[in-house]
Amino acid sequence: MESIISIRNLSKTYASGFRALKDINLDIQQGEIFALLGPNGAGKTTLISIICGIVTPGEGSVTVNGHDILTEFRASRSMIGLVPQELATATFESVEATMSFSRGLFGKPPNPAHIEKVLRDLSLWDRRKDRIINLSGGMKRRVLIAKALAHQPQVLFLDEPTAGVDVEQRRDMWAMVRGLRDTGVTVILTTHYIEEAEEMADRIGIINDGEISVIEEKSVLMNKLGKKQLQLTLQKSLTAVPAELADYSLELQQEGNVLIYTFDTQKEHTGISELLRQLGKLGIDFKDLHSSQSSLEDIFVSLVSDKA
Questions:
Q1: CATH number of the domain that 248 lies in?
Q2: Are residues 295 and 210 part of one domain?
Q3: Which residues, listed in sequence order, are joined to residue 29 by a DSSP beta bridge?
Q4: Rounded to two decimals, what is the model's pTM?
Q5: pLDDT level of residue 55 (50, 70, 90 thresholds)
Q6: Are residues 285 and 195 in the same domain?
Q7: Residues 6+ apart with CB under 8 A from 126
């Protein structure tokens, strides 16, 4: 798949001396949803701001669909729609007018059909004549998305797009974003809602302390780094894991009433059958068992903690 954003050796140090980005190399593919995850202060917003032409890079290069963000600023910026974290609330314009104005800023001719489609997709059509200042926080967030889509960009940045949006509207927005991807639009998502990335992303990048530590397809990342556990609820509690089971990754929980077996999903043999046979030989009976796999949130927390 062809890359629409190409970043090479990108670094940024602010006047204060703070080094926000350190030698970033990243390719984002056309038509994918790429989730960029990281703790506060990790460099997510700085990276997005540089690509969008808001912040000047220190070192390195960035191209958008082959256009350099410095030497071909207008061409690269016209490819991008940006939904920032901050809400623009002090405007007396109507929803429809602000979207039309945003489209005109990029030299696009009027297109009422496109504006109507976007506003309907975002459940804003019935409020199109309302002044933005009178809308709720969730609606203002959706207006920002509408403005970003006004000029029909090929790349859409969503910086914490569903903050303050209720669960039902969040899912509607997810469906809209998937629809954009299906038409070939590339979506770069930053979010504090890990389940949002788990639900939507094709690939995931994790940034911490200004460096990209992981770039991987979501399914591969979860298979590679996700732990799988078998939880056995025992008939009788144990005070300790028997010595005969020392070769297994076992942990006692809930005052000795639950035995946890952690195993590697990548290995051909999980060892579950052997473990259950051993438990039978030792007379350790269980009344319930179920398995679970690490969520993306578990993996994210683990990777960030290891980096720290």
A1: 3.30.70
A2: no
A3: 3
A4: 0.74
A5: very high
A6: no
A7: none
